[in-house]
Amino acid sequence: MNEVFQVLASSNVLYLSLSLTVITYSNPTSLNTKGAMAPPSFFFVFFFILIFSCTSATTTQQQRFKEAPKFYNSPTCATLRHHPNPNHTCPDNAVHVAMTLDVSYLRGSMAAILSVLQHTSCPENVIFHFVTAASKSSSAAKLNQTLTTSFPYLNFQIYPFDDDAVSRLISTSIRSALDCPLNYARSYLSTLLPPCVAKIVYLDSDLILVDDISKLAETPLSGTAVLAAPEYCSANFSAYFTPSFWSNPSLSLVLANRRRPPCYFNTGVMVIDLRQWREGEYTTEIEEWMELQKRMRIYELGSLPPFLLVFAGRIAAVDHRWNQHGLGGDNFRGLCRDLHPGPVSLLHWSGKGKPWARLDAGRPCPLDALWAPYDLLETRFAALQA
Questions:
Q1: Are 204 and 193 in contact (CB under 8 A)?
Q2: What's phi and psi for 131, nearest 5 deg?
Q3: What residues does each domain of the chain span?
Q4: What is the pTM of this model?
Q5: Was domain 91-385 assigned CATH 3.90.550.10?
Q6: pLDDT digits (tens, 9 = 90+) for 269-300
Q7: Element holding 228 (H helix, E strand)
Q8: Residue 270, CA atoms < 13 Å, CB-side half-sphere
Q9: Cα dist. 72→75, 95, 180, 246, 383 in Å?
């Protein structure tokens, strides 16, 4: 009976999220372009969108994961060098990986972690930095327990992110899942992580690696480049911003003055120089664009456009093999997609469709079969036998 009630409750949450999103877009008073306080109804709707769209129908109590095998360094791996200063606890020759961690995408995160460890020659030299929502401290404790149980030898640290504070800067986007405050944590890594972490590989939770992450981490960031990512210059860059943005010369000229034409890049896979980021105070610059978005709508796609506004045309190049993105389809229907031409080192299910959801529904896309071997979720039968 309790299980039936949980399913019904979860269904109501998903339905409420959908209905409130429709109300937001159909209510003309919800878009306040003058910087004044929006009507209370908008804040009420937006509050529930943030809460319910970031809530999964499953919890860590309902999910049980298998223990992953331990992976060992090859003989050629270097010994980690710890900084002599006792206040610096991070080895300077480790591969540092940052990911957000929450209940909704935990299954994807576990698969991503396993894929990183399985395909690198030096898994013991990889240090994970997980960012969780500070408003869900109880969930963070369960996430920590889940990681420790499935990856007993994993070298990781968890950092609480003030999601309540950033939620005040977030504007609604074309898909409610994009509005979760934790999606914006990648903009705050320079302050969340210890100062001794100089370079980080940021990864989304809906991907798997099939190549050694150390190759990606070694991407050179020379000159003024603060981050590196695969660029897609054939994409229609103007589509990522509204006509209001392009019709305002003071805004559009920001992109026109770049050293090379700005191109789209996906923020789900990035190599970031955190020292340069801190020196350039790029988090503040991103927040300024988010504040402008609250006053006049200049984009529609969540946390991506502020990154494009700050970094497009200024990043270091990475081979496309390191982000075969879009496998989750578009942001509306999540239809099946094929791989881009060329070699593959990382498969990324960005978009609405996630492989675990499609596999559970019995309607997988062909490429979802490549994700399945990394799925650590125990089946109901296996959990009952344990």
A1: no
A2: -110, 125
A3: 1-53, 91-385
A4: 0.82
A5: yes
A6: 999 999 999 999 999 999 999 999 989 999 98
A7: strand 227-229
A8: 24
A9: 9, 15, 36, 52, 28
